[in-house]
Amino acid sequence: MTNLEEKTIEIDQQQWFYRQASPKNESEAPPVVLLHGLLAHSYSWRILLEDIAEMGLMGYAPDWLGEGSSAKPSRREFPYTPEAYLAALEKLFHSLELSRFHLVVQGFVGSIGLQYAFRHPEQIERLVILNTPLSSSVRLPWLMRQWAFPLMGEMLTQDPLLVDRTLEKGSGYVISDKNLNIYREPFLKNSQAGRSLVATIKNLNLSQAMAEIEAGWKEWDKPTQIIWGMGDPWLSADVPKALADEYNHIRFVKLEEGKHYPQEHCSDEISPILLTFLRQQTA
């Protein structure tokens, strides 16, 4: 049996929420950190966290600041730029005593995890990428760009049904009311979740972040696996396939039925692929 816990930690007066999965027996193997994309929350990793712990590894999945059950600071307190997120993420890893780990990233904002990896390669054992923007050709989906529009964006992001529309559009499947209620919860509590989402979109600086990621591949030599939902309505498979063709240390695996949030509906398919990849390092 594994132990899946919900925890919080306060750093610089901001509370991070995270899910931690602990194996039955302690292991000296590197833990696994999973970073979610917009609106997916750490909850989307629940099945994979359990499977990771069953394999004997510790698993950590935080909610980004501004999302899920983590703090939703005002823009005066936190500027919601990639640089701010990167600095906050470094402090989170330090506070959790995560000096070396496997990293799994997914989605928009999850791409900040790639920037972190490229800036701190000494901390990363292996890298796994699920449907994450990877090149300067990427643009935010129209559905998300609207969240930054004056007045319209503020109105859209105060509607909890925005969560349903985004997750179901991206995943391509109906999500159960039970799960949607968990994803919607921050928007039902107060207006801060919507305001944080607007701030995130307005300050994402996607083109600059993508330029850094695009350049980063030239120096990156850690074992990397790209697991890609081929039906993603927002991100093409062309770039990840080209990366795998160019670099021997990058593997590309197709999820024929997967889409933008493959961990929500394809965890059973992802799990053996992911764990086999991680086991090769820890065996």
TrEMBL record:
Q: Which GO terms describe its molecular function?
A: hydrolase activity
Which keywords appear in this protein's UniProt record, sorted alphabetically? Hydrolase
Domain AB hydrolase-1 intervals: 30-263
Alphabetized Pfam families for the sequence = Abhydrolase_1
Instruction: Write down the InterPro entries for this protein, in alphabetical order.
Output: AB_hydrolase_1, AB_hydrolase_fold, Carboxylesterase_BioH, Epox_hydrolase-like
PANTHER family, sorted: HYDROLASE ALPHA/BETA FOLD FAMILY, PEROXISOMAL MEMBRANE PROTEIN LPX1
Question: Which protein, by its recorded name, is this?
Answer: Alpha/beta fold hydrolase
What is the organism of origin for this protein?
Euhalothece natronophila Z-M001
